[in-house]
Amino acid sequence: MRLSRYFLPVLKETPAEAQIVSHRLMLRAGMIKQSAAGIYSWLPLGFKVLRKIENIVHEEQMRAGHMPMLMPTIQSADLWRESGRYDAYGDEMLRIKDRGGRDMLFTPTAEELVTDIFRSHVNSYKDMPLTLYQIQWKFRDEVRPRFGVMRGREFYMKDGYNFDLTKEDALHAYNRHLVSYLRTYERMGLQAIPMRADSGPIGGDDTHEFLVLADTGESEVFYDSAVTDLSFGDRDIDYSDVAQCAGVMEEFTTKYARTDETHDEALFHAIPEERRRTARGIEVGQIFYFGTKYSEAMGATVQGPDGKPTPVHMGSHGIGVSRLLGAIIEASHDDNGIIWPEGVTPFHAGIVNLKQGDAEADAACEAIESAMEALGLEPLYDDRNERAGGKFATMDLIGLPWRITVGPRGLKNGVVELTSRRTGESEELPPEAAVAKLA
Ligand code: ATP
Ligand code: MG
Ligand code: MG
Ligand code: MG
Question: How confident is the model at residue 355 (pLDDT cuts 50, 70, 90)?
Answer without folding.
Answer: very high
